[in-house]
Amino acid sequence: MIKLPFEDIISKIKEKSDLTEENINSKINEKTKQLSGLISKEGAAHIIANELGIKLFEDFSGKLQIKNVLAGMRDVETAGKIQQIFETREFKKGEREGKVASMVIGDETGTIRIVLWGTQTDNLKNLKQNDTVKVRGGYVRENQGRKEVHLNEKSSLIINPDGVEIKDIKELSSKRKKITDLSENDTEIELLGTVVQAFDPRFFEICPECSKRVKPGDNENQFSCQQHGEINPNYSYVFNLVLDDGTETIRTVFFRNQMEKLLEMNNEQIMQYKDAPEKFDEIKNNLLGNIIKIVGRTNKNKFFDRLEFISQEVHSNPDPEEEIKRLEKEK
User: What total number of domains does the chain contain?
Assistant: First the structure.
């Protein structure tokens, strides 16, 4: 079933009638009372729209703007410019195992997460931020109130397609929270805090073909990828620090792309610390006391029974005056 958010129903009724938002809400409340409360606000709003002769769902075919992508849609085609790319994760649930990755794309009307399953994750090695992508054959789910387009083996993803131009991008929306107010499975949360502790980066072997983590072989310099067999590995890395915002502290994780943004270094510069970790001490010391802004999600570390924050967007030099103004508005 295609799901249209309540706020969008109100907007469509307002747009296609002479009613004010107050009038519309009044009619919805009356309809709810008339039906003895045995209907949701959304259901009552659908009835009101129907009584007014307003069509909430337009016929859709071809490429949709992101704002018109709705939960429940199937065989969806849309396009956008890549805003964020998240690394591939492996999972195992019972007898089912596989890999999943995601990215956020945006157009002039909004942003949306694209979730890649199975072999679709192989596309990540050919993608970079600000590439334009077109997806076809996606299906739309709602995850914690936000829409996601999922791509499976039957879907397709086209990188920098001819004839598709994305101009101004509607900025990503994120909600500012205090560390003390974080809860498990929070997503698209913005934190502003001070770095109070930094750790050495960890380096690990990955397959040069699929970027999947590889296993050591029988010999010291031998590595094996489940998909591509024996390989000569590339390396990826992860970096951890502790962030303090005055209410609490939290361990924050920066995987490869986010670590590079935070440190303003490229792969070659970071790799020099793999065999000379002592040289990284200066980097860690320079980070202490720095105020940073990050957007990401919480993750429950079951081994230590604690929340951690996974960075998905980094602002290493936030404007103090702008942040003060924002805090004053929030008060």
Answer: 3
Neighbours of 166 (CB within 10 A): 17
Q: In which domain, by residue range, is 33 found?
A: 6-51
d(CA 241, CA 259): 11
179-226 residue pLDDT tens:
999 998 787 789 999 999 999 999 999 888 777 788 887 777 788 887
Residue with tokens 């791509």: 151
Rg, C-alpha atoms of the chain: 23
Question: Counting Cβ atoms within 10 Å, is residue 28 exposed (0-12), middle (13-18) or buried (19+)?
Answer: buried
Task: Report the Cα 302 to chain-centroid distance in Å.
Answer: 22
Residues 46, 79, single domain; the answer is no
Q: Which of 101, 205, 180 is nearest to 148 (CA)?
A: 101
Which residue is listed with tokens 């990540």?
A: 124
Q: Give the whole-angstrom CA distance, residue 140 versus residue 76.
A: 8
CB atoms within 10 A of CB 168: 9
Q: Are strands 63-64 and 76-93 parallel, antiparallel or unpaired?
A: parallel
Q: What is the DSSP letter of 116?
A: E
139 located within any domain: yes
Question: CA-CA distance, 303 to 264, in Å (whole number)?
Answer: 31
**Residue 74 in domain:** yes
179/315 same-domain check: yes
Domain shared by 16 and 75, yes or no: no
pLDDT in the model for residue 219 = 75
Say whether pLDDT at 52 is over 80. yes
Same domain for 236 and 311? yes
Give the separation between CA 168 and CA 298, rounded to whole angstroms: 30
Question: Residue 149's domain is classified under what CATH number?
Answer: 2.40.50.140
What torsion do the CA atoms of 254, 257, 261, 263 make, to the nearest 10 degrees? 60
